[in-house]
Design a protein that fits this description.
The structure is a homodimer.
Chain A (H helix, E strand, L loop, with lengths): L1 E5 L7 E7 L6 E10 L2 H8 L8 E2 L3 E9 L11 E4 L31 E3 L4 E4 L9 E5 L3 E3 L6 H4 L5 H13 L7 E4 L3 H12 L5 E5 L2 H9 L4 E4 L5 H9 L3 E6 L4 H10 E9 L9 E3 L2 H4 L4 E4 L7 H13 L9 E5 L4 H9 L5 E5 L1
Parallel strand pairs in A: 4-8, 11-12, 11-14, 12-13, 14-15, 15-17, 18-19
Antiparallel strand pairs in A: 1-2, 1-4, 2-7, 3-5, 3-9, 3-19, 5-6, 6-10, 7-8
Chain lengths: ~350, ~350
């Protein structure tokens, strides 16, 4: 089967034939139908996050069950599924308290990758998924069955980008009706935070970015105000619109400067939620006075604090009801052979979501 | 009347006769019965917080209504009251949403102090109170009537120290039953956080300090575990006791190092609450990764997020019912003439609360 392999940081991926082990107990082989290109993939390929190489990237996917390992229940060959990076054991304190996204279960248990190149070299699988490949093998807990009538290029985005943005608003911040919200960064994740805020009845919803094209998209997703931070003092602008500071600020760009700005955009008892991953070496430098007198809150949301198995089916329903926008997130579709073009376009900031279709 | 005046940073207070203006419209003159010495007073006297001099300190008080300004309702001469630094207008968005402690109303409206020394020099009134004095004049919103049968030296602590620690747990963090709590610093404020956690049914309640004497007091107030950070790795100790990190950490000492340690003591989705005021020039240096993957939260609590007028009467009831400990907070009582001794003892870390009694 074909896969896109990163052999060296900063170099184009190599699309080549590789070998995939059959699923072991509790595992499932999935025929990948669509995988979105996420900034986290690119962080790995550029060396911004530490990771062993060579590696097969890709973690925002949908596909069809192809083969089932021993002891797997609830799936049969041909079932359409979303494939997520979240493994959950179902038994730990996080899984038992509605926080399965924090489960610390490890996969693969034997610490051996299921992917190998034709020379016999092991290929790491990014985020327990490695879905820039025609097939992958994952733990059964990473899969959520979906209806057959949702297109796979839309469904794949539910695995990461959609839940990360939408869930930060809905699950982590639990934004109440009529709250003021700021979303810094209106790429694939940010737009889902915007629509999460819109569906929650937040008002105003202020989108902040430096690209007019992305801001225009934010309007489509429900933003009431657009602020281009390259042309205006975004902090002052937000303070003006909200009358002193926002109730919620979501930082969907991976930048510590944006986090500091976000805190200043938030008002009394305002909450700033870090959604995008800054470089691992970056540090935040803040005055503790930001927190005490005005009782601001800083927190983070990991994978939108999503509970995959209950939420993804609901998100599919929202999409089918015309409430959740997915079509509008897709900028372009590429075959696996052209994955380097898809990545380049994301890096240039041209794309909301580029999808690899198989 | 007599008052203790700070004329110069770092120098002893001067106890002298001063003049007090009569109350204007909306204001009340109070005969002070007891004022606690709080670390915030000392911050001012030592120059750690910017403030104009000369100044009359003191802001944690109780006394009796002495004279009523025009338009004041609900009080009559002789009523026992707690005197707080919190002014509230009753009309702004904070007052109307149960957050009167965040009211931005200013007092005195005319920006003129009510205190002057015998040479005619204006004396600032610390935190709109200036209650290291036999009498003071404050806005009527700063007063809460209390029953006559609670001793004034206990009641005065309800104005600041008690609500700041207790309220951080009850109002700001809203600690649920069976949560694990850490309280860093077990002075006057920290002990009230400990008893807030105990009354909330938190477990374990881990008190962290470097003074064995204060830790012993924490046990009396409900701590289940005592950690002396000068003799052990407090972060590891907390992680061991809680099985990976605490649900809530309250930082009642004014130190950015303690805030960083607190964050590391908190576990997945744990909340760290800054209660004590660090130096205004100190800055926090943290990795954003502390917030994202484990979804930790950092926030602050100002004056225990207290709603004075509804909460202080309830705290009095809890005290009278034997649930809220106040007697145990008092280390010593001093007359106004000996205020410098009372302050010195607090600075040496010898005292929980020292009270000036009139």
């Amino acid at each position: 089967m074909k896969a896109a392999v990163c052999y060296e940081v900063g170099k184009p991926l190599v699309v080549e034939e590789i070998n995939l082990d059959p699923p072991k107990a509790g595992e499932v082989k999935v025929k990948i139908a669509a995988t979105a290109v996420c900034h986290s993939d690119i962080h790995i390929f550029r060396g911004d996050l530490p990771q062993e190489l060579p590696i097969v990237g890709g973690h925002e996917s949908a596909g069809y069950i192809d083969e089932i390992g021993k002891g797997v229940t609830g799936f049969k060959k041909g079932d359409p599924v979303v494939v997520s990076l979240l493994v959950s054991c179902g038994k730990c304190k996080y899984c038992r308290t509605g926080r399965s996204h924090q489960c610390t279960a490890v996969w693969p248990m034997d610490n051996e990758t299921r992917m190998h190149n034709k020379k016999g070299q092991d290929l790491a699988m990014l985020f327990k998924t490695g879905s820039f490949a025609e097939y992958t093998v994952v733990d059964q807990s990473q899969l959520v069955k979906i209806p057959a009538d949702i297109p796979m290029d839309r469904a794949c985005m539910l695995a990461c980008g959609v839940v990360t943005g939408f869930g930060a608003v809905i699950n982590r911040a639990k934004v109440p009706l009529m709250s003021s919200c700021v979303i810094i960064g209106t790429g694939g994740v940010g737009l889902n935070a915007v629509q999460g805020a819109a569906i929650s009845g937040a008002n105003p919803i202020i989108a902040v970015d430096i690209a007019d094209k992305k801001l225009k998209a934010a309007k489509t997703f429900g933003a009431t105000h657009l602020v281009n931070a390259s042309r205006t003092d975004a902090i002052k602008e937000v303070q003006n619109i909200t009358g002193g500071g926002a109730d919620y600020v979501f930082i969907t760009v991976g930048s510590t400067a944006a986090i500091s700005q976000g805190l200043e955009m938030s008002g009394v008892q305002g909450m700033t939620v870090i959604v995008g991953l800054p470089k691992i070496t970056d540090s935040l430098d803040m005055s503790p006075l930001m927190f005490i007198k005005d009782e601001r809150t800083l927190t983070g949301s990991y994978m939108g604090s999503t509970q995959l198995h209950t939420e993804i089916p609901k998100l599919v329903d929202l999409y089918k009801a015309g409430i959740l926008k997915l079509d509008e997130l897709i900028t372009a579709r590429y075959p696996l052979d052209k994955i380097n073009e898809a990545i380049e376009s994301v890096e240039k900031g041209e794309a909301l979501r580029n999808i690899i279709v198989f």
